[in-house]
Amino acid sequence: MTMTVTTRAGGAQPPVPADDEAPALPKRPIPGALARGARGLCPACGAGRMFSSYLKVAPFCQTCGEELYHQRADDAPPYAVIFVVGHIVVPLMVIVEELFHPALWVHLAAWLPLTLFLSLVLLPPLKGMLVALQWALHMHGFDPASPEREEPPLVAPLVAPLLAPASRTPPAP
Question: What residues pair up with 67 in beta bridges, in sequence order?
């Protein structure tokens, strides 16, 4: 059985009507967002903190209210840190070995702490840059029309102690 497919000249698809087009998303400057993300600031306003702790992204910006819970950084920041730290430490190790031929314990004493220090220092800025890049490119739920968009998380209020059961005293006889 033979099947024949006919297309327009040049293989061009018919134009999509203007009614079916999604509304244009606002342009978000990538360099500025990356710079704010590297400093751990909200990619939208640059004033609020992106992280609520060392690596935990706050669900919302406390200053402008931008939704940050859409981020999907996952394993990318550690991979980026391994890439960057490896490109710093390995050449230095080779240079020191070729120039000075130190004992193995010197290598261990020098490079292990440096690797650990660089990894811990670079992880938050690289994660912030990745979240900011996702925001700037309207990736995942940062696009209001995205099927990946999720409902906002329930943020525990600061009134939890008020909701705790009151100390119970036995009723008076």
Answer: 60
Q: How many alpha carbons fall within 13 Å on the CB side of residue 2?
A: 1
Q: What is the mean pLDDT of the chain?
A: 84
> Sign of dihedral through CA atoms 118, 120, 123, 124?
negative
Task: Compute and round to an integer the Cα radius of gyration of the chain.
Answer: 26
Identify the sign of the CA torsion 20, 26, 30, 36: negative
> What is the pTM assigned to this prediction?
0.76
C-alpha distance from residue 86 to each of 55, 93, 101, 129 (Å): 21, 10, 20, 19
pLDDT digits (tens, 9 = 90+) for 135-159: 999 998 899 888 888 888 876 554 3
Round to whole Å and give the CA distance between 41 and 18.
37
In angstroms, what CA-CA distances link 131 with 7, 33, 80, 102, 150?
A: 41, 9, 13, 41, 16
149, 151, 155, 157: CA torsion to nearest 10: 150
- The token duo for 99 is 């120039």
